[in-house]
Amino acid sequence: HNLRMWKPRSCLLLLGMLLATSQGEIALKSCEYRLLTISDTGLGSDKIAVFHCETTTDLRLKSTLNSSAPLFDPSLSRQEIAAKLQEAGIPPQANWAALNSDSLGYLRWSGNLKLECDDVSIPQRAKHDIPLDFLYTFPPTRNSLNQLLQAMGATKWPEPNLKNTISFGVFVMAPLSREKMEACVAQGTLRVVVDQDSSFPGYDDSDPTNSSFWKFVDVAGNRPAPGSSVAVTKRQMTCDPPAFKAFADEKKKFVIDLLGAAKTEDQVKGAMQTRDNIFNHETYAACDERLRSLFAMETREQELKGVRACSSEDPNDPCCNDAMRWSDCCLPSNKLVNISGLFKEPIDARINAQCGAKAGQVKGYLQAFATSLMSTQHPETGCQARGQEGTGDHLWDQLSSPLQKCINAVLHGKSVADKDSCQDDSECYTSSCVSEGGSTSRCAREVGSGVAEPILKCVLLNADRDLWKSMAQIVGVNPSVIKKETALGGAGQAAWNDAVAKVRAKIGSPNCAGFWQDTQMRCEIVGVGRTTCQAMGTHMSGWSKRLVWIGNELTADDAEDGFCTLANPGWHQNGESLHVHDNQNDELNKASCKQIAERMAFVCSNSDAASEAACTASGGQVLRTSDKETRVHRLKSVTYHEQNPDTGEWEEITMQGNKTMCEMQSKCNWDSDGRYTSGDKTKCLTGENLNSGIGLVSASITDPDDPSKKMVCMECGGSWCHPFYFSSPPQCVAVPHRPQESCGGDTGGGPDNLPSMTTLTSSFEGDGGYFRCRRDNFTGSQEQCLDQRICPLPARYQEQHPSDMWIHNCGDSFCYDPSITLEGVCQSERFVGGERIDSWWRPEWRAGSGLCRVTGTQSADWSTYTHFGNKAACEAKGFSWWEGRAYRAGQFDTKESCTQFCNDGTWPPKQQCDSDNSLCDTFCGQCTPADRDYMGGICIYSASTTSEMCARNETAGYTWDWDSKMCMVKDFVGTEASCTARGPSHAFHTCAGGSEDSCGQYCEATHLTAMDQCQAQSMYHDWDWQKQVCRVHSHYASRETATQCNAHSSEGVCNSEPGCWWEPTTSTCSGQAKGCNLMSSMVPGGTFVWRGGNDEASLVKSSVLRCYWNTWERCSTKETCEAAGDCNDGWAEGGACIVPFEKSEKGHRKDCSEMPLTGPTSATNRRTRPAAS
């Protein structure tokens, strides 16, 4: 029992009671005593003598204040005695004698007894005042400290009262020391004497609340004879090993639970007082006494390193003055102290006599026990020194906080470093670092029995070693074998697995558990069937009014077997708050459930309507709840403590959960809040006919092993999962370039002459979810969807963005002639029905073999043209129609692929990360483009010098930049090599790699040297904070020299000049050319200088990329990141004068404000910039 503790600093007055039943003339029959040890109360003694005196007949209580009051049986409840007092006319102020003002719930009385030992006489007193020279009256239970320690904060276990017994106690201190008491017992002079006169100190016959007015008598009301007495003997206890083990296992586990739940110092004190309660219980103490009889103890001097034990008599030393412990803790130091109760040697004679053949084994155990015994006698009380860096908590924090932190860490996915993110599995107690779908990952969370291993691992890594030793005792494992190294995968894994299994068995009985379970109670609206209930289950009904159907999957196929319950069993309106909660008792929950149904009044199927009439008017269905019967179902068993009104004891109450109801309740794992399914199992399992016609692509994946079943890919953290929205089955979509409201007659046809499609009524959430012309029977492969008898070889467009996962190159809907397979025939003059066929050859189609597309027919006289823009017109002339299709491959849609993904923030997410996907967590100044889309660089095609020339290449992915008058690859993603591989006249340009001086190409207004002057020039100028210069915006000056637009007389030259355009009506060139040399004409008196080159690269940087130096850009390479020299001491970023810590006279660290400056106080001296580290 090596649990260190904070010792209480004040004495709580002890109140008593008397309970007994028997018959006959009353007298003291016998008295026994035990010496018990409790934690130091600050009174100079940790020993208390507890006496049990048995009487010869039944006990009764008699009032001396009111002779007409009946005799009371002490076993009556408080309420029963209060009623009898009221009937007897006893003044209310005297009722405290029965009801007990100190809330201990027992009757007490004074003046009945006294304890004598030679010349020492200690009476019972009316008023319990210091000094403690009086007898405390205890409840007559076998564990007398039960009541006393409860008053100090300990947990009390209900115990039966001993028959016809009076119990009391006295602190063992002067004048009745332990030696004095034992000498009197040996001589037979320690006696309990009946003393019922009024002469003892504290008696006041004018005070009606004086407890001396209550005397113990027999059933006839007769007091015992004054002066009668009985000798006191020492209580002889018998050790019952099986009972001892059962008692210790149960009670010590309870102490660990109390420590784990403790949040305050008082709660930890109460837990440790509970520990004292256990050790002094006769079942435990009898065997402990037997153990200690087998060895001798001694007091010896011991040097203790780094302790706060007392080694002086200085009253101002916090290590020695108990009262100063919480306000002024002592500093640890090496001290020589005398420690009593240390193991000296086994007592061979006793061991041989009691242990027989096992004597040698017991002696070996005792030698190993010596270290543990010394630990229990260690004088260190554990006060944390405030001067110790990084600390300030007290011992109770050390004992309880790690366990609570471990529980929170495992439940909420905290890493070993107490962070909400992780990099790999080794950083997590659950050994699982999982992605959240973005650029971060967090530790997997666990609930239920799954918490056993991660919490055990966390405790070993963080908790006080003494706490782990005590936990190990409760669990039943060897703490010297299970170490931190074992928890981290080191040696001893077999023992570790055994420990985990034992912890899992100890953490509690089976219960109804679930992660993020808001409540473990259900409020049922009785008599509402499945169909009606599910109609009220959409989010449109309002969050506070939504209903949920819970079907009974444990019975047969009866769809109506189940119950309809409130989705949110609470009510919060107009200042009123009602709850159905698992921490309330069942009666209160029943009342709350009914009140909530009445306050709701009704539920509307399609809106949160204010009235039934408004619901009906909007086409909704009304379900009235105010007149419905309600029931409450408790899913999870709950244990709590409640004060018994009869006894005043805090008793453990268990409200049992309903296992059947718990297992009956299921959730759709991909729709946990019922948004799509409203709890309908069929909808969940099929992913069809979902609410509001919306579904999830990820909920329609078919199990290849059983096509009748559906699968879903989920992202899980331990046993807690949520839908993985990147998951999608393959999709084949018809007429992808046409509106999806109606598939109609423009679908179907093709080589297999398919019929027209029926427009699907539901859309999906996810990529491509708006498509309603889906050919779900053609998703087996890319080739099945993109029929190679018609389509080109599946390929992405050259300019297609990486985030676009679709294959679009067969998406055109058109009319074609399947009978023609040669280009020459297709483009020759041909007729159908006397009309000329307009067709053209598409060489890339039909898997590269070519396809003859028919766009229409022309009358023989060229007067009319019929366009084949739809299926009907095409087939009317005997041609075939291709509906057009787009295909998207499945992603994370199989058991094999639904395992992991790279969460580097890119879309679409990849199955595997690149070999180097690291990001830098600091910043490097670098040259970046104004448009973030150009971070990777751009590809310029200089051969196209006009917009018309560039437009001819649009089908190949080029676009004209009007600001710079340059042709560039649209949405270019690639490298310099991929750019130049496109052919001659292609050049790659990027801001990356430029120095701070060469980064920006700009026109500087040198006459404007101050920010306010620059900004006063409105749109023409921008102040460069980095360079502290005034720059002309690139829209007005993007190159060194240019010619005024009106000087150009040629349309081609005009249109090639940035900022100029040709006016065809007037045949003139208009606009403002973008040369820095022309700015002086726009700003008279200004001087302007071009900073940069005049070649193509400089022009691209200034007009297209608009490069600038960004100080706060994340470092782009590993080398620049690691060379950044960023300091994590942000408080010193601007420079700081750092000095060593100093101690105060009492050894505490001084605050900076307490340290006077001893050197120069100039700003320069105090703001010296530290070197980067």
Q: Give the integer mean of the pLDDT values.
A: 76
Distance between the termini: 48 Å
* Strand residue percentage: 15-25%
Could you tell me the number of beta strands? 51
Structural class: alpha+beta
Q: What overall geometry do the principal axes of the alpha carbons give?
A: elongated
Strand order of the largest sheet: 5-4-8-10-1-2-7-6
| Chain oligomer state | single chain
Largest sheet, strands/sense/barrel: 8 strands, mixed
Low-confidence stretches: 1-24, 92-110, 126-132, 198-204, 206-211, 380-399, 1159-1173
Helix content: 10-25%
Radius of gyration, in angstroms, nearest whole number: 45 Å
| DSSP helical segment count | 30
Q: What characteristics describe this protein?
A:
1173 residues, alpha+beta, eight-stranded mixed beta sheet, six-stranded antiparallel beta sheet, 51 strands, 22% helix, elongated, disordered N terminus, disordered C terminus
